[in-house]
């Protein structure tokens, strides 16, 4: 997105990653791996995950989650900070989704389940989750809580997790999104392995994904 490209049209009915900005962005990422050799190959990340590569100083940038902060803080002598996603020719943005709790329509304990949801999404439970690094709180009051931000400890720019939310592009939403995402990742794998050009990969993604978009029983227009 920071390169100005899009995977889907506004209505989520067609894959448009074959447009010039989309293929240019894909090629740029692939070039970081195979041309400039500043991003690790899949062979490297299969042996050592990104977090380990980051905390051992083998990669300078790692796209991660606020929930990972406690792991980084626990690494002796590791200095790190937070920065926005590097901007190319597009707009400031980052992708994101989230998770939530659902209640079965067949439950016989509606009132008890609702009381549980109220507690688990309340300030006390969210602070407990955040303290343990399990998740990033959805409540703004907990996001800026001193026990979450921990002034005086890295990262110095923790506030970017709060301020950056206005730039988030929500993950695409269709009733068969898991199937679509799996197909996209499969068709892009040869590109990341240096076996296919960005244009070829984008065309393969479109051929595979367009029928899946058409088959979706429900979809939400993208941001």
Structure description:
GO terms for molecular function: maltose binding. The protein has 223 residues and is mainly alpha-helical. The protein has one domain: Periplasmic binding protein-like II (D-Maltodextrin-Binding Protein, domain 2). Helix content is 44%, strand content 4%. It has eleven helices and four strands; from the N terminus they run ααααβαααααββααβ. The protein has helices at 20-34, 42-47, 50-55, 69-73, 110-120, 123-131, 140-143, 146-149, 160-163, 177-192, 198-215, and strands at residues 94-96, 168-170, 173-174, 219-220. The protein has a two-stranded parallel ribbon with strand order 1-2. Helix 1 crosses helix 11 (198-215) and helix 10 packs antiparallel against helix 11 (198-215). The longest helix has 18 residues, at 198-215. It is globular, with a radius of gyration of 20 Å. The termini are close together. The model has no long low-confidence stretch (mean pLDDT 93).
